[in-house]
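RECORD TYPE: inverse folding
INPUT: structure tokens
STRUCTURE:
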């Protein structure tokens, strides 16, 4: 139930983000969701795409430093307290969230969030045990 995410190291300069998007567009690869974290000198662009292997190859060929990371996507009730309930489940099991971000689309009355856990397999088992839907790549794509 883990999903492959591409993490790309970028210099924080005009045109670097655009060049990644242009390379993916030329290959007809669609970005499902992304997150960009930055400092004054560099940034890390995190991407989820259906054909992540092809995207990785294209970006590496274009000279970008690309790392593959396993993340977990969850359905969270899109209402006040929905995320708080998920976080409480993880906190009681002492599972750390390294980072998270949201998808741009919803599934019915649920929001979709991406999590990077310190212990992803333990997190998946716990979340499923508590009735929280972990989204697999097949469902997502």
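DESIGNED SEQUENCE:
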């Amino acid at each position: 139930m883990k999903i492959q995410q591409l993490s790309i190291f970028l210099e924080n300069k005009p045109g670097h983000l655009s060049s990644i998007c242009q390379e993916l567009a030329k290959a007809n690869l669609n970005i499902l969701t992304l997150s960009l974290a930055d400092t004054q000198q560099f940034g890390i662009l995190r991407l989820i795409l259906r054909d992540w292997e092809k995207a990785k190859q294209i970006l590496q060929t274009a000279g970008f430093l690309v790392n593959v990371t396993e993340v977990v996507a969850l359905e969270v009730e899109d209402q006040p307290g929905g995320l708080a309930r998920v976080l409480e489940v993880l906190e009681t099991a002492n599972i750390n969230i390294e980072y998270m971000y949201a998808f741009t689309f919803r599934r019915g009355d649920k929001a979709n969030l991406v999590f990077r856990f310190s212990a992803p397999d333990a997190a998946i088992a716990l979340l499923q045990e508590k009735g929280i839907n972990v989204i697999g790549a097949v469902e997502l794509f």
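NOTES: The CA atoms of residues 125 and 134 lie 9 Å apart.
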